[in-house]
Amino acid sequence: MLVRASPSALKEGRWYEYLIRFALGGAATMFAGWVASRFGPLVGGLFLAMPAIFCASATLIETHEARRKREAGVRGERRGKQAAALDAAGAALGGVGLVVFAVVFAASVERSPVAAFVFASAAWLSASIAAWWLRHKLRSARNLAANSRAVG
Amino acid sequence: MEYVARFLIGGFVVSAFALLGDLLRPKSFAGLFGAAPSVALATLGIAVITHGASYAAQESRAMVLGAIALTAYSIVVCQLLMRTGIGALKATSLAFVVWLLVAFGLQMLAGAA
Question: What's the CA dihedral at A92, A98, A100, A103 to 10 degrees?
Fold first, then answer.
């Protein structure tokens, strides 16, 4: 399965959907800062990994996919939910990367804050992609085994 | 003023990662960007400038627990969407309870240890 960019996907979005995500992202960052100043960094830190805009993103994916299927003349509700579920599965793997980001950042920020941002971001990306690739390979192997059993 | 800066920086970083997620296929790969450190980058950047590196280190140590909770949250959302008839908005809202329980549960355990 090849990873690719699909610029046409951006045309499906409406301007207010991007505005909602901007507002939710800004509000989540403000909220995380408020929690940290009110309850301290140990509680505030939890909210740095809050699923801030996941609700909006998953709903958008579901709506766009359902709309696309409807326009193709088929019922799209089920496909919309499946697309949102796939996105959530990817986010679970990204969560592993986020754990790695936090560990690397915590270990390096007191030595060099700039290096901590660079290393932690690189670690997040590498760990997330590695987790996704591993899942992809495991699923492919499982499907291959199931097909061989069915043929045999 | 600090909160306005937080809002603008957070909104920008979150939107940038969300756009990347929109752009990429397959969807399971794009989903990785749903768990991007967008709020963390903005908040930790401001924390380093306003409170210092030691404060940011404390926040990021707590973030490890939040990130484990985010993984649990995403798995629950995926299962709710695949196994029940409920839509994305309801599934993501219901699963937020799981995020809160796991995040604060782990913190209580870490505090007790």
Answer: -140
ipTM value of the model?
0.93
Residue of chain B whose alpha carbon sits nearest to that of A128: B32
Nearest by CB to residue B63, choosing from A26, A58, A102, is: A102
CB B32 within 8 A of CB A97: yes
* Closest CA relative to residue A57, chosen from B76, B32, B80: B32
Query: What are residue A4's DSSP bridge partners?
Result: B25
Check CB contact under 8 Å for B26 and A18.
Answer: no
Q: How far apart are CA B35 and CA A25, in angstroms?
A: 13
pTM of the model: 0.90
DSSP letters spanning A80-123: HHHHHHHHHHHHHHHHHHHHHHHHHHHHHTTT-HHHHHHHHHHH
Domain ranges of chain B: 1-51, 64-113
Mean pLDDT of all residues belonging to chain A: 88
